[in-house]
Specification:
7-stranded mixed beta sheet; 20% helix; single chain; alpha+beta; 8-stranded mixed beta sheet
Amino acid sequence: MKYKFYTCDVFTDTRFGGNPLAVVLDAEGLTTEQMQLIAREFNYSETTFILPPEQGYTNKVRIFNRTSEMPFAGHPNIGTAFTFASIGRLGDFNESAQVTSEEKAGLVAITVHKEMGKPIWCELKAPEVLSIGKTVTPEHMAAILSLELDDIVTQTHRPQVASVGLPFIFTELKDRSALERIKVNTTVLAELEEGIRPSLFTYIHSQDDFDIRARMFAPLAGTIEDPATGSANC
């Protein structure tokens, strides 16, 4: 059996920039184990597998990182919708088209936009409302990030698990120097209790043209650092 796939770069208008994604079309017949092996072979942070819908929406999408299946992720949904638009699977549309994908975390709605002379762009609605989980002590978070304790900002919130379909530990840092000095200690990260071992989203409130500057790490899923993240930014 042969399967067609595309690769695309998300969150960029430059080829080989942004966050790469592999999209495997018409993936019926592949087992979960085979999907995982294919995702590991691509070696991107995520690979999507497109299946017929089970609930009457556009499609069913299964998302795999290098080590496991994911309930939801942002850049794979954006990239999959973009690929559909690019190869004509959304038909001929003028200004916008809607894609709704059935996923483990729920329904993910993506609006695909195009304007004359501009790149196709997409807007995503996360499948879940914001939920807040457990906290991590600043001391533990400093050890995970290989930073000093005073690099961790806690006035607004302690290091905190939050999710709109995929959990992250959100940690605010004091300045750009701290953001740049992060070296994730995977041994300490792996020692966190089982229910509190998601990916890491670290950020600062920026004093320039950007609202925040951020870095995302998912080393336990095989991604040392992600170039860009959709689900954490959601």
